[in-house]
Amino acid sequence: MIIAVDGPSGSGKSSTARGVANRLGLRYLDTGATYRAVTWSAVERGLDLDDTAAVAQRARELVLEISTDPDDQFVIADGTDITAAIREPRISEVVSKIATNLDVRKELIRRQRAIIDKAQTDGGIVVEGRDIATVVATDAELKVLLTADQEARMARRGAELAAGSVTAAELRDQIVRRDADDSTVSEFQVASDGAVTIDSTDLTLEEVVDVISRLATETVPRSQEL
Ligand SMILES: Nc1ncnc2c1ncn2[C@@H]1O[C@H](COP(=O)(O)OP(=O)(O)O)[C@@H](O)[C@H]1O
Ligand SMILES: Nc1ccn([C@H]2C[C@H](O)[C@@H](COP(=O)(O)OP(=O)(O)O)O2)c(=O)n1
Asked: Which residues make up the binding site for ATP (predicted)?
């Protein structure tokens, strides 16, 4: 079984997808982490992020190991553990430049599909990002568009970052500007065909995990349909 969870920044995709994977004993893939890993590597090497060819070449060369264990998430790039580094503001501020590079997307989508294929032998996977239902795994048995009001998403992200470490303008940049940039290459504001929209503004994390887990257990995996 493949469960796709797409949506804007701060809607709760990562925490919800991890919770559902835990609840149902599935693997978990954070595709945003793959874009962050390429960003980290390009920044580390001092590449011009507007040089799309050089950045795409870096994406193809990068040796990337990404955990699909919902209880033990790590990202290793060319032998360096970058699990924490990819969440730093210096990466969040520029990651959209890498995520809007179409050659980078081509390479990372290829890698994401390989990870998803492998997870099928482990019972399935919950995959979260922006283009999972529409591009990466169009055959997903369950497709969820997770949304929340902009104010709620900014408040959640603000609470997550160390108190006082980020100004209101920086928060807006991380949520509103980034979503606007990212939506030039992926449609994650409107539900695609067959996707269920869940507005998490007034739901707790636990409630969202409950709803998605229930929908998943009501969905018969395609392999069992015959
Ligand atoms: N339904 C919810 N209600 C309140 N807070 C939530 C909810 N879902 C997630 N959060 C919190 O909001 C923050 C952002 O969630 P995250 O899963 O990182 O979102 P995304 O992956 O969509 O950017 C986290 O601190 C998370 O714990
Ligand atoms: N499938 C995906 C996943 C993420 N992205 C982009 C969108 C974001 O700007 C970056 C990082 O994604 P991530 O999900 O970590 O972002 P958040 O901070 O959780 O909002 O990558 C994408 O274009 N396609």
From this structure: 7-15
